[in-house]
Write a structure and sequence with these properties.
The structure holds two protein chains of two kinds. Helix content of chain A is 40%, strand content 8%. Chain A is of the alpha/beta class. In chain A, the strands form two sheets. Chain A has a six-stranded parallel β-sheet, sandwiched between helices. Chain A has a two-stranded antiparallel sheet with strand order 5-6. Chain A is globular and about 70 Å long. Chain B has two domains: 42-221, Thiamin diphosphate (ThDP)-binding fold, Pyr/PP domains (Rossmann fold); 235-364, Rossmann fold. In chain B, 41% of the residues lie in helices and 16% in strands. Classes of the chains: A alpha/beta, B alpha/beta. Chains A and B meet through helix 6 and helix 7 of A and helix 5, helix 6 and helix 10 of B.
Chain lengths: 397, 370
């Protein structure tokens, strides 16, 4: 066992950049420099297109299902922001991790969780990815490295850091011979005023964790405009989030979040950086949600002009046009991708509808990984050994 | 290996004696401590906790420590003294001052296969980590449908110290009590602190492990590296017949001080150290209640919403006909802990109050023995 504890030479909690010059060189905030969209292979382009269409059609189906009384509670749709999810997540490996907030359906889909599992979860069925116990805001998948789905914004980012820490630990402390797994945490402009964001920026840079902060700046936190909630960065007209990376010694990059190819390029650089052990990156993707904050939001504060402006920049037709213009896909290719998505979305609704609801017996099952946590009853047996436990009727306190 | 109940009962009484002697020795001279030293080597509780952490880190390379000043400084109460030299800066991670942040990082690390021990330099600081402890630590196994577990140990010193002021004198066990999915364990002796911490580290559940700021220098014998306690078991400190006193953490010593006085007066109280504040060991508790039919709870947390409030309710609900008297709770006053010595002393339970409570509930004079 002792031999496994060999440490790479000089591995310590990474020292913060000590010299200002070094910080500036590494952390110069910059807009994505490409004015022309970077090139993609046909395979990658089609994969991105498929993934964005899947995200869009899935979310639009959720809206329908919600209003038909198939799903309940707080449902936050991603429509309009697909370029960010697809652009970043489609190039992650299976052993990489994704953390999100309550706007997490599409992040889960991009990472590989099946539409069936996500829809069934939304319908509250036991075939859902979380057995119906999580719901819209808590999508988890151990198989695909989706670490949640968090309702309180900001609380997922440190969890993402933990996964990145674990990856570095396995490599540096346990000596496992494999690349760092990269973790991407997704969250919005509103989250960038939560303390945990800053605590996480500091620790990620300090420990040089393979973690990428992806800010989906859609300008609104429910009804609170980003401009009214966030102080302007020094010398700027706007409150720039990407510039906050420099304060913590990491690169901060601004990217057009409606252009999947630009997002893809920026994410590629950040992922490679993290994989090489050079630490975290802060990406601010300027994007927009076409729908309200949630399906319960009347969305009255955003002006029609603003919405129209962003709708005109819908990432899906943008990529479609690019693919056709540059011979990456034919009309027939694109139609077949769209048909495939339609089939999958229809199938997942049918699956979710026909799936059984959780039984009462599920109530007590996953409270503890070790069910001895419910304690010892008067007769000396552990409570989980009592007959009512598996039927969910046992008295456990 | 988990100790069986019978072994625990006798083992616990032996374990209580050296620590108790150490307390009395300070008051009544050196006689008792000399006798104690003649046995196996005695160590202090901080050393026992350090041994537990060291042994478990050696046994399982995924066990790591995170917290403020746990590394180079060795821990504010020395519980990780020198461990960074043996295990390196990553396994004994000095964090910046960001409790919510590093608690969340511990959660994420636990979800992905590590077994972090997260230290709150003072338990009270973990109020800043309440978001992560409640939402993520406690709930993730459930909301993920069982896909992820969070085998964290969250430990640190709490309780009222010596004039540390209100914020450094908090008892968080009552605040964390309602969080579903966590276990609460309070150690009290050298032996049980090491054995319980080892068990907590090995557990797949998130365990909030309460140490007491005034108990770190308590002396006693610790078990060896295979001595792993049962996290869900209470400890019978002293068997008796007249009344059962349920207590935990430092109040165990206050109770035993009162018991020494009561024994001289002819009373025969039973003392049970709850150890597991959540869940309660209802087998041990019910056995003691049925035997004595009178219950006093002595705790350091506030009266309102305290551990005693829960225990009292459970005893009344499930053991009502076994009681000759309503359950009496001796808890701290619902006031912030003042700095001034006299006010601080008036906030927490003193041994004279325990003696008075036994007089009230059992009778002004000790029962006549057949």
């Amino acid at each position: 066992m002792q031999t496994m504890l060999k440490q790479r030479s000089g591995v310590r909690a990474a020292q913060p950049a000590r010299r200002a010059v070094q910080v500036r060189a590494v952390a110069a905030p910059m807009k994505a420099t490409t004015s022309k969209s970077p090139a993609l292979t046909p395979e990658v382009a089609k994969d991105l297109y498929y993934d964005m269409v899947l995200g869009r059609e899935f979310e639009e189906m959720c809206a329908q299902m919600y209003y038909r009384g198939k799903m309940f509670g707080f449902v936050h749709l991603y429509s309009g922001q697909e370029a960010v999810s697809s652009g970043v997540i489609r190039q992650l490996r299976p052993e990489d991790y994704v953390v999100s907030t309550y706007r997490d359906h599409v992040h889960a889909l991009s990472k590989g969780v099946t539409a069936r599992e996500v829809m069934a979860e939304l319908f509250g069925k036991k075939t859902g990815c979380c057995r119906g116990q999580g719901g819209s805001m808590h999508m988890f998948s151990a198989k695909h490295g989706v670490l949640g789905g968090y309702a309180f914004i900001g609380e997922g980012i440190p969890v993402g850091l933990g996964a990145a820490f674990q990856s570095k630990y396995r490599h540096d402390v346990l000596g496992e011979e494999k690349d760092y797994s990269v973790t991407c945490s997704f969250f919005g402009d509103g989250t960038c005023n939560v303390g945990q964001f800053y605590e996480s920026l500091n620790m990620a840079a300090l420990y040089k964790l393979p973690h990428i902060f992806v800010v989906e700046n859609n300008l609104w936190a429910i009804g609170m405009s980003h401009l009214r909630a966030t102080a302007r960065t020094a010398g700027d007209e706007d409150p720039h989030i990407y510039k906050k990376g420099a304060a913590f010694g990491m690169p901060g990059v601004l990217v057009d979040g409606m252009d999947v190819m630009k997002v893809h390029q920026v994410a590629k650089e950040a992922i490679e950086r993290a994989r090489r052990g050079e630490g975290p990156t802060l990406i601010e993707a300027e994007t927009y949600r076409f729908r309200g904050h949630s399906l319960a939001d009347p969305d009255e504060l955003r002006s029609k002009e603003e919405k129209a402006k962003w709708l005109a920049r819908d990432p899906i037709p943008q990529l479609k046009k690019y693919m056709l213009d540059n011979g990456l896909a034919s009309e027939a290719d694109i139609k077949s991708l769209e048909d495939k998505v339609a089939e999958i979305v229809e199938d997942c609704v049918k699956f979710a509808d026909e799936s059984p609801k959780p039984e009462r017996g599920q109530l007590l099952e996953n409270v503890f990984a070790d069910p001895r946590g419910f304690g010892i009853a008067e007769d000396g047996r552990y409570r989980y050994q009592m007959p009512g436990f598996s039927s969910g009727t046992a008295v456990v306190s | 290996m988990l100790a069986s109940r019978n072994t625990r009962a006798s083992g616990a009484r032996v374990a209580a004696a050296p620590a108790q002697r150490a307390i009395l020795a300070a008051r009544s001279g050196r006689r008792a401590s000399v006798a104690a030293q003649a046995q196996k080597k005695e160590i202090m509780m901080w050393e026992a906790l350090r041994e537990a952490i060291d042994e478990e880190m050696e046994r399982d390379p995924t066990v790591c420590v995170m917290g403020e000043d746990v590394g180079h400084y060795g821990g504010s109460y020395k519980c990780t003294l020198g461990l960074y030299k043996k295990y390196g800066d990553m396994r004994v991670l000095d964090t910046p001052i960001c409790e919510n942040g590093f608690m969340g990082m511990g959660v994420g690390a636990a979800m992905t296969g590590l077994r972090p021990i997260v230290e709150g330099m003072n338990m009270g600081f973990l109020l800043l980590a309440f978001n992560q402890i409640s939402n993520n630590c406690g709930m993730l196994h459930y909301t993920s449908g069982g896909q992820f577990k969070t085998p964290l140990v969250i430990r640190g010193p709490g309780g009222v110290g010596r004039q540390l002021g209100a914020e450094h004198s908090q008892r968080l066990e009552s605040y964390f009590q309602s969080i579903p999915g966590v276990q609460l364990v309070a150690c009290s002796t050298v032996k049980n602190s090491k054995a319980l911490l080892k068990a907590a580290i090995r557990s797949d559940n998130p365990i909030i492990f309460f140490e007491h700021v005034l108990l770190y220098n308590v002396k006693g014998e610790a078990g060896d590296k295979d001595d792993v306690a049962c996290l869900e078991r209470a400890e019978v400190v002293r068997e008796g017949t007249d009344v059962v006193i349920f207590t935990y953490s430092r109040m165990r010593y206050v109770v035993m001080q009162a018991v020494n006085e009561l024994v001289k007066q002819g009373y025969n109280p039973e003392v049970v150290d709850l150890i597991s504040l959540k869940p309660f060991d209802m087998e041990t508790i019910a056995k003691s209640v049925k035997k004595t039919r009178k219950v006093i709870i002595v705790e350091e947390c506030m009266k309102t919403g305290g551990i005693g409030a829960s225990l009292s309710a459970v005893i009344h609900e499930s053991l009502f006909n076994e009681l000759d008297h309503e359950v009496v709770r001796l808890s701290s006053q619902d006031v912030p802990t003042a700095y001034a010595y006299e006010l601080e002393a008036a906030t927490i339970v003193q041994s004279s109050q325990v003696v008075d409570a036994v007089h009230r509930i059992v009778g002004a004079t000790a029962p006549v023995r057949a």
